[in-house]
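Thread: quick sanity check before group meeting

JM: Hey all, I'm pulling together slides for Thursday and realized we never actually wrote out the predicted structure for the chain we discussed last week. Dropping the sequence here so it's in one place. If anyone has concerns about the input, flag it before I start.
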Amino acid sequence: MERPSLEINLPDAHEEGKLYVVDSLNNLNKLNVCPDESQHALDEEENTGGTGENTAGSNIRNQCLFFVTFILTLIISLALVSFVIFLIIQTRNKMDQISRRLIAEKKTIEELKKMNNMILKHLNQSGIKE
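JM (edit): ok, ran it. Output follows.
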């Protein structure tokens, strides 16, 4: 009797089963080792054939984003430093004005003291006593 063709196809089916098991183990290992985002990136890399085109575009995009963020940070820092310098200058001008006023008031007080002393001397000399 002839052997059925099923017996001949069994080794091929056995090989396909081995490949399926290995592929399933690889997928399970990816799920356990890589987080979801990394798994998504790995799946995309497998879909692109592993050429790395996606990662190169992602790296350029990340570098541009970093550069733009860096430039914006520098501009904001420059604006803040300029504002602080402006506030320091304004405060210094106000302090100068206040010190000038205090000096003027001190001179006025000294003049009033001199006038008071002169009046007291004049009153003492004229002999008017209370």
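AS: nice. The longest helix spans residues 53-126. The mean pLDDT is 78.
JM: adding both to the slides.
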